[in-house]
């Protein structure tokens, strides 16, 4: 057995002086022995007693919580003998057994008030107490007890030095009358005829009126003292241990003895008992540890016995607890002598003292299982922990040991009767031993009273590989925290397993690991940290590089990254020739590990996407988690390279950045795949439509909805609106052409939403040009569709995704608003988009939202959105859209103001024409003509109305002329309209013409005579005179003198500055070419040591972004080192990015899936 030593993690946390003084005073004056124990419950208490003094302290800090000094009837004070934690009615207390001169007293002590609330006197010396029930009456919690006991309220088993075992009624239903140890109730009333439960209530009431407590005699006095009691709730048995080594099991349902036997250690008292249940025992067996020890003498005997309790069956109660039924037999299967047989090489043992025992069980969460709800669940982890102290001849200080027994590994080892000596020299597969000597060295001469292992701290750590090697399951791999209770305080320690100890040594070696490769490899091999394929390979047959790679793999797989990061920091800081080689080796190994992990991840994921499996087994899920953990650790190593590198070439920095980017993207991809597996969305089965008990991706149904919706929008648009106004289509188009190509790749893909499979969706996370928040947004939208088309419409799926990836609620509200808009729930959609916590929408989103509402006839809601959101307008198309919204809601004045606010010399004609057309279409020309016009606006309106055919447009133009006192153009227009009317036969047009002519006649009458004559004559057609063409000579200027122009260049100050700058540029380019040839040989080195000042951060800031940001989220945070400049877009794709590609998935047919 390996030497595993605990490490002290705290100083001695001493008890308060008042506690130490109170205990020490009685120890001197009354010659009483100090005793103390951890309560073992969830309250985290420890108690100490000496004589009549009881002190209760915090087991973590040593702080005093409660104290009480018991008084006796006569002058001689009582002595505290037994203490057990007891809770009732949301109160925490202690059951205290006091020994007096003429008998004993059972006290119920309330920690909240620090006083005794119940006290019962009985004959004999109390030796053991065990709580049975803290409830009473016809409750579910007591139905496993005998019917007579169900009439009692609170039951405790009390044992005496003459073998008497009583079941005492604590009368918790009546706490009104206060009792203390002095005013204890008289002798217990032993009820006879317990098999006649009908008379128990009357007898209990009569006894209570007399001030006594009712009790049942489970065992009559035999003369042999009872040394310990233990109630096993899972088997409903009370185990009684005697001072002569005998053991008795009593059934609490029948109140009969079920078994009575003597342990193999002889007539040695049974001092401790603990129950242990294995994992999924098909024979319905559980186990009981019995410890025999001569605690009260200077003997040398501590024996452990494991007894098998066999039952006919077991069931799950309504409370969720397991109950074993139909006890059949009890057999001793394993024993262990702790007196000295384990360590014969350490010298002869003079005394062995047993300290404590406890059992720790852990149940895995099986909430995702679809088994029967009444299935009995057993603990996945079940270990019993023992601690004892050994005094050896010739040594001043004792040794303290802690042993861990794993019953599931004992099953795996074929259940041996006792461990052989050779198993303790090597690694025992089911028993591990730790030395607690450091606490003795620090706290001597204080006595160790008890030792407690904290249940939550027990863990094995991270397995080095999947499936883990056999050594990983041995108890020597456990890590846990320990607290020691001493006479003056508490001390905390931690016990680490052999694997963790090995990793600590690797961390300490740091950069020297390359010089001690063989030793590090051997340690990792023995600890089971290496790959299972290396177990049978001789270390001598491997090169040093192969051994170093195996050690680095162990460090990365177990999360001991300090091994690699320490080496990187050391090698980058020193200027040694070998440092560059070492750094290059580690970098290449890290990148190769990323590639191998990605290949492994692809192999695991293919069956999840191709329909070849319909459920995911735990081993596959563990393999996915293992890949995720590896990628996380490898990403940390690459980040360390980026942070610590002192000098990087441009190519080296680009390669290293790409490697880190690729690793982080694959890590995110693995995270999302694992979430989809845990949510039962993966694997994609061929018969998902048959499994309505869980949500699934129903692509045909979702695709049918969106195809129909797009056709509907196409019909509603009527060529007037852009029918491509679905928000999800806008979200996808904003991500670029890569998404469209990706979604066309798989068979049946259209390049549009929804993707043809979850494989196509999840591959989105491997695109380096898209922000993470945008990828999550598409996934959230798809989850909303899955929830919508799934009958139960559970929201837990979405909440789980948001929690797993820490997605802000603002983004969720935004995407849900888009989804509701695409599903025609306009009111709820706008309510979410208007919510102050929602992420602010950007320009293209405003346009799509308004177009979608207008296309579907929701003009008022479009206007409401515009007024609430107040989107900015940066282009003519946006202004035209907002003008249309205002005019569609007949907001003429607002539209006219918006137009005048956003017109320029370049777009004024375009915007005016658009407004006039909308007004004409909406029948708003009359309102338009009431507005004031500028000259340009009048000119555009006249041109618009002149170019439009139809008598109504000419009439609007006529009214416009008359409104602006343009009588002559009005008369001319009316004259032309008269000419056109001659050919028309419509009587209504003739009536309108008569009215129009009458109106103009009235205008003519009020004109001055000259203007009237001019207007009438101009309205008449004129005959142009015939023109005569005459040729005349070109006239000559009176004085001109022609000169030849100078052909030379014009010299200016600007041309001089340009020449000087061009000379500087030529000189700079010449120097750059020369310098490049000098360091051209160093381009192949990615990392090399350099000066002490770090420029990695400056390099990072000076680098252009790696990829174009396509985020459609307004407040999406920029991702560092992930944007590509426009000059780099023309460069070929980096080779590192090829790792992001996933294999093509081909859906298997139903027949081939069944065959597989």
UniProtKB/TrEMBL annotation:
The organism's place on the tree of life at top rank: Eukaryota
Keyword Membrane in record: no
Domain ELYS beta-propeller: 1-492
InterPro entries hit by this protein: ELYS-bb, ELYS/MEL-28_NucAsmblyFactor, ELYS_dom
The entry's keywords: Nucleus
Segments forming domain ELYS-like: 725-947
GO cellular component: nucleus
Polar residues compositional bias, start-end: 1094-1132
Localization (cell): Nucleus
Annotated spans, Disordered: 1092-1136
Official protein name in the record: Protein ELYS-like
Lineage of origin: Eukaryota, Metazoa, Chordata, Craniata, Vertebrata
């Amino acid at each position: 057995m390996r030497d595993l030593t605990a490490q002290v993690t705290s100083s001695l946390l001493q008890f308060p002086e008042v506690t130490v003084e109170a205990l020490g005073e009685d120890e001197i004056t009354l010659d009483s022995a100090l005793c103390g124990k951890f309560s073992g419950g969830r309250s985290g208490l420890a108690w100490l007693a000496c004589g009549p003094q009881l002190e209760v302290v915090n087991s973590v800090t040593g702080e005093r919580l409660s104290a009480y000094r018991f008084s006796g009837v006569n002058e001689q004070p009582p002595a505290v003998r037994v203490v057990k934690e007891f809770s009732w009615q949301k109160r925490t207390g202690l059951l205290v057994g006091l020994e007096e001169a003429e008998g004993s007293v059972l006290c119920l002590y309330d920690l909240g008030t620090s006083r005794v609330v119940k006290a019962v006197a009985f004959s004999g010396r109390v030796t053991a107490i065990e709580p049975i029930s803290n409830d009473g009456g016809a409750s579910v919690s007591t139905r496993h007890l005998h019917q007579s006991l169900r009439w009692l309220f609170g039951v405790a088993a009390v044992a005496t030095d003459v073998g008497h075992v009583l079941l005492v009624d604590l009368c918790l239903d009546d706490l009104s009358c206060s009792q203390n140890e002095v005013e204890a109730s008289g002798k217990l009333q032993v009820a006879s005829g317990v098999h006649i439960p009908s008379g128990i209530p009357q007898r209990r009431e009569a006894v209570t009126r007399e001030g006594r407590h009712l009790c049942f005699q489970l065992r009559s006095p035999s003369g042999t003292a009872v040394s310990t009691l233990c109630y096993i709730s899972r088997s409903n048995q009370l185990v009684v241990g005697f001072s002569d080594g005998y053991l008795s099991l009593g059934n609490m349902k029948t109140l009969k003895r079920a078994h009575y036997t003597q342990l193999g250690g002889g007539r040695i008292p049974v001092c401790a008992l603990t129950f242990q249940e294995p994992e999924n025992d098909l024979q319905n067996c559980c186990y009981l540890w019995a410890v025999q020890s001569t605690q009260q003498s200077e003997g040398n005997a501590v024996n452990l016995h494991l007894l098998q309790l066999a039952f006919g069956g077991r069931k799950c109660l309504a409370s969720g607890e397991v109950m074993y039924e139909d006890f059949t037999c009890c057999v001793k299967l394993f024993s262990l002598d702790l007196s000295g047989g384990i360590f014969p090489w350490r010298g002869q043992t003079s005394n062995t003292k047993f300290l404590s025992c406890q059992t720790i069980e852990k149940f895995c969460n099986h909430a995702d299982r679809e088994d029967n709800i009444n299935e009995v669940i057993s603990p996945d982890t079940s270990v019993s922990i023992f601690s004892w102290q050994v005094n050896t001849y010739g040594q001043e200080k004792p040794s303290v040991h802690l042993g861990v027994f794993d019953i599931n590994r004992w099953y795996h080892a074929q259940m041996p009767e006792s461990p052989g000596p050779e198993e303790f020299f090597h690694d025992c597969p089911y028993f591990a031993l730790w030395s607690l000597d450091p606490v003795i060295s620090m706290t001597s001469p204080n006595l160790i009273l008890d030792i407690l292992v904290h249940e939550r701290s027990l863990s094995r750590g991270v397995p080095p590989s999947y499936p883990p090697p056999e050594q990983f399951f041995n108890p020597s791999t456990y890590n846990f925290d320990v607290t020691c209770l001493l006479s003056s305080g508490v001390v905390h320690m931690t016990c680490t397993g052999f694997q963790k100890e090995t990793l600590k040594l690797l961390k300490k070696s740091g950069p020297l690991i390359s010089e001690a490769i063989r030793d590090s490899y051997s340690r990792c091999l023995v600890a089971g940290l290496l790959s299972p394929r290396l177990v049978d390979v001789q270390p001598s047959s491997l090169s040093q590089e192969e051994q170093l790679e195996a050690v680095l793999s162990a460090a990365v797989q177990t999360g001991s990254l300090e091994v690699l990061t320490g080496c990187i920091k050391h090698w980058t800081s020193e200027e040694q020739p070998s440092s560059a080689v070492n750094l290059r080796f580690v970098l290449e190994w890290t990148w190769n590990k990323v590639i191998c992990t990605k290949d492994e991840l692809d192999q695991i994921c293919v069956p999840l996407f191709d329909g070849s499996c319909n459920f995911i087994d735990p081993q596959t899920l563990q393999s996915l988690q293992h890949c995720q953990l590896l990628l996380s650790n490898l990403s940390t190593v690459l980040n360390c390279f980026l942070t610590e590198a002192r000098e990087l070439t441009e190519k080296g920095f680009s390669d290293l950045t790409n490697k880190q980017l690729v690793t982080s993207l694959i890590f995110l991809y693995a995270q999302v795949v694992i979430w989809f597996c845990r949510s039962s969305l993966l694997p994609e089965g061929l018969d998902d439509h048959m499994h309505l008990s869980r949500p699934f991706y129903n692509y045909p149904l979702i695709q049918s909805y969106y195809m129909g919706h797009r056709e509907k929008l196409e019909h509603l648009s009527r060529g007037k609106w852009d029918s491509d106004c679905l928000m999800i289509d806008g979200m996808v188009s904003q991500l670029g052409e890569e998404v469209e190509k990706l979604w066309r790749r798989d068979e049946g893909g259209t390049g549009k939403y929804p993707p043809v499979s979850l494989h196509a969706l999840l591959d989105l996370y491997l695109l380096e040009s898209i922000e993470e928040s945008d990828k999550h947004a598409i996934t959230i939208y798809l989850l909303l569709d899955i929830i919508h088309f799934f009958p139960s419409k559970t929201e837990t799926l979405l909440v789980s995704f948001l929690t797993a990836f820490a997605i802000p609620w603002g983004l969720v509200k935004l995407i849900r608003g888009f989804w509701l808009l695409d599903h025609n729930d306009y009111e709820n959609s706008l309510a979410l988009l208007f919510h102050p916590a929602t992420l602010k929408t950007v320009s293209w989103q405003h346009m799509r939202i308004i177009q979608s509402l207008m296309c579907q006839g929701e003009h008022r809601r479009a206007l409401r959105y515009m007024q609430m959101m107040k989107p900015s307008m940066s282009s003519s198309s946006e202004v035209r859209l907002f003008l249309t919204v205002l005019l569609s809601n007949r907001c003429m004045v607002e539209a006219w103001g918006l137009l005048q606010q956003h017109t320029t010399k370049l777009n004024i004609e375009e915007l005016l024409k658009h407004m006039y057309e909308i007004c004409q279409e909406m029948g708003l020309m009359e309102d338009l003509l009431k507005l004031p016009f500028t000259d340009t606006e009048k000119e555009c309106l006249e041109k618009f109305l002149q170019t439009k055919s139809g008598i109504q447009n000419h009439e609007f133009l006529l009214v416009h002329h008359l409104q602006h006192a343009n009588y002559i153009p009005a008369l001319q227009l009316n004259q032309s309209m008269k000419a056109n009317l001659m050919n028309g036969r419509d009587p209504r047009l003739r009536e309108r013409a008569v009215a129009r002519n009458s109106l103009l006649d009235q205008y003519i009458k009020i004109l001055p005579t000259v203007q009237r004559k001019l207007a009438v004559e101009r309205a008449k057609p004129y005959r142009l005179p015939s023109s005569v063409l005459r040729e005349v000579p070109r006239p000559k200027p009176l004085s001109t003198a022609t000169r030849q122009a100078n052909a030379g260049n014009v010299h200016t100050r600007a041309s001089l500055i340009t020449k000087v700058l061009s000379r500087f540029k030529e000189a700079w380019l010449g120097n750059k070419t020369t310098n490049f040839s000098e360091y051209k040989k160093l381009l192949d080195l990615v990392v090399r040591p350099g000066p002490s000042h770090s420029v990695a951060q400056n390099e990072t800031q000076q680098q252009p972004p790696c990829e174009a940001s396509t985020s459609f989220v307004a407040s999406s945070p920029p991702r560092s080192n992930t944007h590509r400049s426009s000059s780099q877009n023309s460069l070929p794709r980096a080779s590192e990015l090829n790792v992001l590609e996933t294999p093509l998935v081909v859906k298997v047919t139903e027949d081939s899936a069944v065959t597989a």
